[in-house]
Amino acid sequence: MSNADLLKMTISELAPKIKNKEVSPVELTEAALAEADRLQPELNSFITILHDRAMDQARESEAAISRGDYRGPLHGIPMGLKDNLATAGITTTVGSKVLASHVPEEDAEVVVRCRDAGAIFLGKENLEEFAAGATSNNPHYGAVHNPWGLDHIPGGSSGGGGANVAAGVTFASLGTDLGGSVRLPGTFCGVVGLKQTYGRVSQRGLMVTSFNGDHIGPMTRSVPDSALVLQVLAGNDPLDPSTVPVPVPDYSALLGQGLKGLKMGVPSNHYFDVLDSEVERAVRGSIAALEELGAELQEVSLPAMEYVGALRIAAMADGVVTHEPFLKSNREDYGPDVLYRTIPGQFVLGKDYSKSLKVQRLIQEEYARVMQQVDFLVTPTAPVPAPRIDAEYININGEDHRVRGPGSGIISRNTSPMNSVGLPAITVPCGASEGGLPIGVQFITGPFEEGLLFRVADSYEKASPSQGLRPAVAVGV
Q: What average pLDDT does the segment 154-160 reach?
């Protein structure tokens, strides 16, 4: 089997071949590293490529499998790690000059779980500075480029991971999602991006984060692969009080059950209010396909979403507390976007912060009521296909919206609510723009119903017009 053939495969396809010794983890990792080196000048998707460590892990994996110590579907699989996940002995910059020389002493819990499952880490992936933005235009390490259109953003803040998975460099990448930072690279790069229920996966070792709503989740080439990665990540961490000790089902066993009898909720407000026409056409096509697959359509209303902008107040206050020590010691090392986004948080009054939390609770209660009426929700993931890297504004239906800086937020308008609500959400490719840029559809279920989420997403993925499409920069295209 050629390297090009190997790099096109999914984890679900590779795992049995690795287990049966038909595919060598060493050869697979060599091929993935060669592809990482080939594409780094074009994509700028890594901050650090771990050549020697990855090959050491690959040789260890091959030796373990040879003696019958096979650890499961991630064993021998090359993955990427966003550079805000702590890695012991490896520089972890969080995409900032502030932490350019920071070397953690311990691994993040998700890194430990993936390593124990036999995954091989190719490198630390590029991101928006401090994971604070939707573009991955990093002022210190350079912009990440979208493999579907090199002049376009891959989404943020986990842009390096989305680009690598789409381009065939990594078979999965772990990102973090505080406002859509896994799902936005998912939709813009044409891959599957998952934000599971808040409390399902440990956040321990996620650096410079929010105290409310951040998640660590996978970007993968398929829905079954997402289920395999979450299987490893999920579960209570006794050292992380944000995790919830609820049972973790066998996610892969829940795939393939179809959609017959499920009620599909389509919001009548907010999600379709500000939307590019090509995105709306693709997502409406997804809804029609879901009906053909047996789902029953039901329109739902979410009137409290009118006040969703108030949630930014709490986020601003969280941000300034998180950054306070660095702002005192290294203010000059900040890029302008993060600095000017963070500073206003110090002027948030206590009563306004409390009102923001009250709005959050009202919106959470509203979603809880709606999820009693339907099994899952369907929305566009982002209002537009990937903007250009140099774009300051994007135009939607004749109105200009800022891409970055003060007043921005249009890109994450459909993803960020789920970070405040805490419900699981996944993006799946559902088509492409006339310019060949991917479009994603977002599915949402009730809390800790990731099994149902995978069931819906997997059923749709098999019918999606995006099946089989790959970016031109990928090997073998």
A: 97
Residue with tokens 């996610």: 251
Helix (H, G, I), strand (E, B) or coil at 370: helix
Cα separation, 37 vs 32, in Å, equals: 9
Domain residue spans of the chain: 3-305+358-461
DSSP 332: G
Query: What stretches of 331-405 show up as alpha helix (H) in DSSP?
Result: 336-342, 350-370
For the segment 127-136, the average pLDDT, to the nearest whole number, is 96
Identify any residues that bridge with 174 across adjacent strands, giving them in sequence order.
Answer: 81, 218
Alpha-carbon distance of 282 to 442, in angstroms, equals: 12
The model's confidence at residue 409, banded by pLDDT at 50, 70 and 90, is: confident
Higher model confidence: residue 315 or residue 153? 153
Catalytic residue among 82, 226, 408, 466: 82
Q: Look up 45 and say whether it is catalytic.
A: no
Exposed, middle or buried by CB within 10 Å (0-12, 13-18, 19+), for 256? Answer: exposed
Residue 297: phi and psi, rounded to 5, are: -80, 135
**Token pair recorded at residue 256:** 């393939």
Q: Is 97 a catalytic residue?
A: no
Q: Vertex 81, ends 79 and 86: CA angle to 5°?
A: 140
Q: Which of 475, 41, 462, 33 is nearest to 224 (CA)?
A: 462
Q: Could you write out the DSSP letters of every residue in 119-165?
A: -EEEEEEP-SGGG-SSS-EETTTEE--BTTBTTB---SSSHHHHHHH
What is the arithmetic mean of pLDDT over 415-431?
A: 97
- In the residue annotation, 66 being an active-site residue is answered as no
Assign 405 a pLDDT band (cuts: 50, 70, 90).
Answer: confident
Contact 201, 217 (CB under 8 A): yes
The span from the CA of 456 to the CA of 290, in Å, is 9
pLDDT digits (tens, 9 = 90+) for 238-250: 999 999 999 999 9
How many whole angstroms separate alpha carbon 197 and alpha carbon 467?
27
**The tokens of 358 are what?**
């009250």
Q: 3-305+358-461, what's its fold?
A: Amidase signature (AS) enzymes (3.90.1300)
Catalytic site residue from 61, 157, 286, 466: 157
pLDDT, position 118: 98
* 408 confidence band (pLDDT: 50, 70, 90): confident
Residue 406 has a pLDDT of: 65
Which region holds residue 49: left if phi is over 0, alpha if psi is between -120 and 50, else beta? beta
